[in-house]
Each structure stands twice: as C-alpha cells, then as structure tokens.
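Subject line: Sequence and fold of a protein, written as structure tokens
Body of memo: The sequence and its backbone structure tokens, given next.
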Amino acid sequence: MATINHLFAKRAREVQASAIREICKLIAKPEVRSLAGGWPDPATFPVEEIRDIAQKVLVERSDLALQYTTSEGLPELRRFLADWVKKTDGVDCTPDDLFITHGAAQGMELAAKILIEPGDVAFVGLPTYFGGSGACQTFGAELVGVPLDVDGMIPEALEEKIVEVQAAGKPAKLVYVIPDFQNPSGVTLPVSRRRRLVEIASKHDLAIVEDNPYRDLRYSGEPIPPIKAFDTENRVIYLRSFSKIFCPGLRLAFCVAHAEVIRRMVIARQFEDCCANTFGQYVLYEFCKQGRLDVQIRKNCDHYRIKRDFLLQAIERHFPKQVRWNRPDGGFFVFVHLPAGQDCEELLREAVERNVAFVAGAPFFVDGSGRNSFRLSFAQSEPEVMGAAVEELGKLLRDRV
C-alpha cells in the first residue's frame, strides 16, 4: 500500500518516542506493579472542589468559559499568578511577563521554537528529562550533556563545555535545567549554583530555560529561590505547572519571562493552539480565588511525603549494598545506580517478566551513557504495590550484583 512516508520532514523522521510513554503502553496490565510513570496520584485530585466550581462556572460564566480566550491567557488568572509568583518564589513580574500554556511541555516547546535554529547548541544535564532535550532537538539543536552530581548540574563542567563549543565555532544558545527535585535524578541545585548558572549565562550570552514542575512538592528542607529570582538580565524563561499540584488533565501551566520574550512565545503559539483551555482556566482561577491552591499544595506534600518515605525504606530493606540511590527532598523520583557494566535495559526486561516496571536510565542521557541507572517513581502506586515491586526488584539485583 502506498504511503506518504517519503514526505515526512526531517524532524519527524528523527524525533524519538518518549521512553516512558512506550513503557506505559507495554505495562498497561492490571497485574503489573509499576514504579515507572511520573504521573500524579489521582487520590490527590480535588475532585469535589472541581465539580462544584465547574458547575458554578457553567451557570455564571458559560458564555466566556466555553469560548476562545486571549492567547496570553485569562487576564484575571494571570494577575493572580503574577502576585502568587512574587509571594512564593520572590520573582518580581507583572501579568505582561506571564502567559498561560497548554502544560509546561508547551512552554518548553515554545521556548525552543523562538530560540533554536538548526545547529545551535543546547546544554542539558546528564541525566535530564528527555521532554526538554527533545523539544530542543526537534528544532535542530545539537545537545551537549553536562554532568550532574549530588547537587545537580556542575557549573564548572557547564562552563568548560560552553568554552569547547564556542572554540569549535558553534553557536551556544541555551541551558535547560530542572533545579528542584530534578527528573530523573531527584537532585536540587543549591543557591550558590543557581547564582553561578546565571553568571555563566551572562558571561557567555546564553538563555536559561528553567523547568520547575515539582517546585511546590517539597517534603523536607527549606525552599530555595528559583533561578529566575537571580536573573537581572532577563535571560531566564521560567516554566511552572499545575499538573502536579492541581491536576494534569486540564493541561494548565504558565511561563514567566521578559515581556518581549512572552510576546514572541505568544505569537508562536497562535499558529499552534490559539489559546489554552478556557474552561480549565476559569476553573483554576476560581479555585485559586477561593484560597484553595496553597491548601491543596500542603495536602499533596503530606500525601507524597508518606509515599517517598515508604519507598526509601523498602529500598533500604531490599536492595543490595552495592547499589546507590538518592534521597530526594521532594518531587516524585528516586534514581538508582548499579555498578559500572550493568545494563538496566536487560534488568527491565527481566523485571517486566515478573510484572514489575521502572524506567531504565539510558534515555535520560544524551551522550549514550547511563545504562547502569534506572528511575523509580513513588507518585502513583500504593505502598503495598511499591513494597512488593521493590522486594521483587531486590531479588533481581542481588542475582546481578
């Protein structure tokens, strides 16, 4: 049968499917004990509040809520979020410096769209979330990995990579970083490194895309200002999401940047989806206006703290001592390292045969390394499922190491 495959654009031919999405299809069986997906726990969704607010919105504002809205987003929601970001993050912004996106993924895609030209270099963590690096790659970026340690991206290593790239005559364009409870490593950048990243970006004339979907999910330690709070030259594009603290199905997030950057991103999105979910924006705004957002965040933190602690205790009990893992202060992820030479893709195949799933680490490393690592998520599964999965995984690990 004839196809149009030969007409595919180069970016369509080269883009890779999400490793996590592919695994989720593989393990979509009720008997599988999954530690793979980084999706939030439906038990945290404020279902009753959303139901009541949705009814109120439909009765009182249906003419607006079911209509298109501006590409920037609902004005009253943007005003609320500008004030909220000032209060919670210490980022001084106005509604003109902020717009509503169709999930944080769209914010990353639009940032790449307005910044990246084919051949530009984007610097990403080793490891990093492949949604961010993939967005850059889609627009023709060359990805250069920067090592992480227990405190996240290493500034000295970043600057060394930038100098190498510039010496080779290549255009260095942006740094993509997840500063709080990074996906997949779970690590958090300290204040000193956040300041240093801004200094490096200024020195070498780069943009920073700060992706921060887990920021509000802190279970221990004190909050740290975002990188954007140290940005005095408007180099940082700051992405925030409601998927982890409200619900992901409404696909709502927002972006904070200089007004001219916002304008360019808004123009770019007008040729994609015109505007974000209008009805969802009205529901979210009413939720926020009623003072429920901060309460919801506290509830979520209490919920996930228990799950994080349970998973860490199970790992401590069942994993052999040759295995290393992080102990995150927040977010959804525990990242595991096996001794060098181990292949976690093979381990995953063995685990799936025993109805246990996780995400192998290699897709998070743009340089092809990381085969001896894997990611566990405590977000979705119940404690008894996590316990059984970790026990089975521990048996496989003891056989290997």
